[in-house]
Each structure stands twice: as structure tokens, then as C-alpha cells.
Amino acid sequence: SELCLRFGVSRTVVREALSQMVNERLIYKLQGKGAFVAGRREEQDFVGTTVGFSGELADKSKTVSRRILRQEVAEPSARMCKLLNIPQETRVVHVDRVLSVDGYPRFIVRWSMLERVVPGLDTLPLENRSLYDTIGRQYGVKLARAERWIEAIQATSVEADLLHVPLGTPMLGIESVASNLSGEKIEYYTALYLTDRSRLHFLVSAPNF
């Protein structure tokens, strides 16, 4: 009613304008509560490429900080063995981190790579450096292809505490397997990603195009 009076238009015009703004992701509606301005979301491309999380964000002049939760050499999980096609006794470097962007925790990443590819990585200080930049510069690792799965999940109590969000907050769960230039599968990670401040962007092309 206020918008009708302010702009001298009918309710139909206001409803159409609001619907268009919802389609353009400028506002969102809650049943019985009204319409609200949507926060500006940045587009993230890392899911559709082999670039690292922090590398892509740094290119957009974002401040990325890392909290290391785990950094050690250990055996792979059963899931990892299956997807990387490796035996249980294979030694793998595990690096679990919480990545914050401009001071806000946004990702929980549990990353693993074959130890023989990155020997000694478990001893390097990684809090203030990009993991992908490190494995590229120090070990010459280049990832040529990645296969990823994405699903909608809710934050557990542990995850909610790490990301400073309420229990059950909607997130995207990402699972990834990546191969080097020779086609060998060497990397596995799972990531939990908050989408309240950004959205994922993909570039899709036809086969052999």
C-alpha cells in the first residue's frame, strides 16, 4: 500500500515489480512476513575449475585467512581409496582448514593428496599461504581434470561452531577427485560451503567443443 501511494501506481504494478526483483535476486520474500532486500552475492568459479579456493578469491582482491584444523600424514579413508583407486596402506597428506573471507568463515575444507607427490607438506606452515600455490610452486603439481559432486546439507553442531552459524544452517557439500597431467588421480577433498554471501558459477560446454 505504501509503494502504491508513493509512486501512484496500482497493486498489480507493484506486485509485478517485486516479482521481477525476486527473479533478479535483488529481494526475497518470506510467506506472511513480506519482502526483504537480498544481500549482494559474489560469484565463485572454483567448483567449475581446478583453481584453489583462496587463489580464486585472492584474484578478486579478497582477504583470505586460514585456520588449520589438521595437518598430518595418515592412511586414506575407505571412500578415498575407492575414488583414487589406491590401497589402504597408501600414505596420504591430510590438511583440514577453515577458510575465512574478509573475516567471515565461509568454508570447511578437508583436503588430501598422495604423500609421494608432496613429500614434507605436512610440516610446512600453511596458515598464511595458499595450498594450491604451495603445491604448484614447491612441488610442481598441476591438476588437469577434476570430477565433483555437490549436494545440499545442513550444518552439524561441530560445523556450525567452526563457521559461527546456527545449527542446521543450509550449506553445499562438495566432494572432489582431481587428476594430474598424466591422468593419475592424486587429490581428494570434501568441502562445506556457505552460500549466504555468494553463489557458485559454472561454465558448461558441449563434449569435444
Q: Secondary-structure map with pairings?
A:
Blueprint: H1 2-7, H2 11-23, E1 27-30, E2 34-37, E3 42-44, H3 53-59, E4 64-74, H4 78-84, E5 92-101, E6 104-114, H5 131-139, E7 143-154, H6 157-163, E8 170-180, E9 185-193, E10 198-200
Parallel strand pairs: 3-10
Antiparallel strand pairs: 1-2, 4-5, 5-6, 6-9, 7-8, 8-9
Describe this structure in words.
By secondary structure, the protein is an alpha+beta fold. The protein is 23% helix and 37% strand. The protein contains 6 helices and 10 strands, in the order ααβββαβαββαβαβββ. The strands form 3 sheets. Strands 4-5-6-9-8-7 form a 6-stranded antiparallel beta sheet. A two-stranded antiparallel sheet has the order 1-2. Strands 3-10 form a two-stranded parallel ribbon. The longest helix has 13 residues, at 11-23. The chain starts with a helix and ends in a 9-residue tail after the last strand. The model has no long low-confidence stretch (mean pLDDT 85).
